[in-house]
Design brief:
alpha+beta; Beta-Lactamase; about 15% strand; 4 domains; five-stranded mixed β-sheet; five-stranded antiparallel β-sheet
Length: about 450
């Protein structure tokens, strides 16, 4: 309100200077014009002619605003419409500001402004104007501007209070919802918006988006905890039972070696599971030290396919590749190779003997797609989002080796590289996994 009032005061000051100040300057200009005319008459007709001109001007307009006084060396009046020389101190610019009594009905003392001159012979001449009307107009303008300033301040105060109330009210809604979330722990609550799209709505949208992410993270943590308890309980139980059996059975070196090897294998599988979890967590949190370098996807696909050719041959499967020349992308080659290897591992694992696996690399500007298609059992449409979660496994794949983290790692690597992962049906049977990379990211 203070800033607004200062701005309005500055504006009103300019208006006053442009109106009342202009009128005062016009008055001074009028007096200067009369002085110029009288000076011309004085040069042409002398003192006598000057007195005649002053007398004629007063006769033409006896009640006018012009002021004339021709006085002797002792300031006694000789001609003019003033009864005496005014008692006023001359300003630096040579003007006299004084008050005079006029025979008006109101009997008020009128302000006047004049300029004195010294003529030859010690005579004095005073030319000026009654500025009563000018002062009245100036006071009227000043009063109007003062009222305008007062009304503006009142409106500014009212507007400021209304804006403050509106802001405090909307902030209180945000605070109230936040307190409810903190007290109840219900992350499903959302802060309501007005739908106006203003700054507060944008703030609320950002807070709601943050709540959605926090809720998803909390649900994910809970699901991961449940899945860890469910999926790791079985191998830990087997490991414990095997160790318990070794403790109570009769010593047999060959059986000891077999059970120890089985225990080590079980422990290694548990370690692999936890390492995969840690790697996914690092990638998703952004703390993974990813080396951003140019990656040739054509070479990457060839290396991955060669790695799994031997495993596919054991199941009499055929791996084919269809590669197009594509621009290199920026990313972490090791992570991309691991993601592609996971896809091929799943394809080999869930494709029956004699099946086909095809890897396609195609350039569709500004996108690059890596497609891994198999002729396996596929994934039902309703669970395709769930299989990207940690430890989620289809009931049909519970009996196969694995920990349910392969596609989770693929999803994390894809997100790290600002890419997309799509799961589609392969014709006539099987699954197509598509990794879509953008050249603009």
């Amino acid at each position: 309100m203070v800033l607004f009032a200062s701005s309005v005061l500055l504006l009103l000051g300019f208006i006053y200077w442009a109106t009342a100040g202009y009128m005062a300057r016009q008055t001074d200009a009028t007096i200067e014009a009369e002085i110029t005319g009288l000076a011309e008459q004085y040069r042409r007709r002398g003192l006598q002619g000057l007195v005649i001109v002053i007398t004629e001007r007063m006769a033409r307009n006896p009640n006018g605003a012009s002021i004339y006084l021709f006085a002797a060396s002792d300031y006694s009046p000789l001609a003019g419409n003033l009864s005496h020389w005014p008692q006023a101190t001359k300003t630096d610019d040579g003007w006299l500001n004084f008050h005079l009594k006029k025979n008006l009905l109101d009997g008020k003392s009128h302000p006047a402004r004049a300029r004195p001159f010294l003529l030859r012979g010690g005579l004095h001449l005073l030319v000026g104007r009654d500025i009563y009307e000018l002062k009245e107009i100036q006071e009227l303008i000043l009063s109007a501007l003062s009222w305008g300033l007062a009304i503006t301040l009142c409106l500014a105060l009212i507007g400021g209070l209304m804006m403050s109330w509106s802001m405090v009210h909307r902030l209180e809604i945000i605070n109230q919802t936040s307190r409810q979330i903190i007290m109840t722990g219900d992350l499903s609550r959302r802060i309501p918006t007005r739908g106006t799209g203003d700054d507060f709505d944008q703030l609320v949208d950002n807070l709601n988006t943050m709540l959605v992410q926090i809720e998803e993270l909390m649900v994910g943590v809970q699901q991961i905890s449940d899945n860890i308890a469910h999926d790791l309980r079985t191998p830990l139980t087997r490991l414990r039972n095997r160790l318990e059996q070794m403790r109570w059975q009769k010593p047999n070196i060959d059986q000891y070696h077999i059970q120890i090897e089985q225990s080590i294998t079980e422990a290694d599988q548990l370690l692999l599971t936890f390492n995969a979890l840690l790697r996914i967590a690092r990638i998703e949190s952004g703390s993974h030290n990813s080396l951003q370098a140019s990656v040739d996807l054509e070479i990457l696909v060839r290396d991955a396919s060669e790695l799994y050719e031997a495993l596919a041959e054991e199941k009499q499967q055929l791996i084919t590749i269809d590669l197009e020349t594509c621009p290199q992308i920026q990313g972490d080659r090791d992570l991309l190779f691991q993601a592609l290897a996971n896809l091929l591992d799943n394809a080999v694992k869930y494709t029956p003997e004699g099946g086909n696996i095809n890897i396609t690399l195609q350039h569709r500007h500004p996108k690059i797609e890596i497609i891994v298609a198999d002729t396996g059992t596929g994934i039902p449409l309703e669970v395709r989002e769930k299989v990207l979660q940690r430890f989620y496994r289809l009931e049909t794949s519970r009996s196969t080796p694995g920990n349910g983290l392969g596609l989770s790692l693929v999803a994390a690597v894809t997100k790290l590289h600002h890419a997309q992962i799509k799961l589609e049906n392969n014709t006539p049977t099987g699954l197509r996994v598509i990794l879509v990379f953008s050249l603009n990211s």
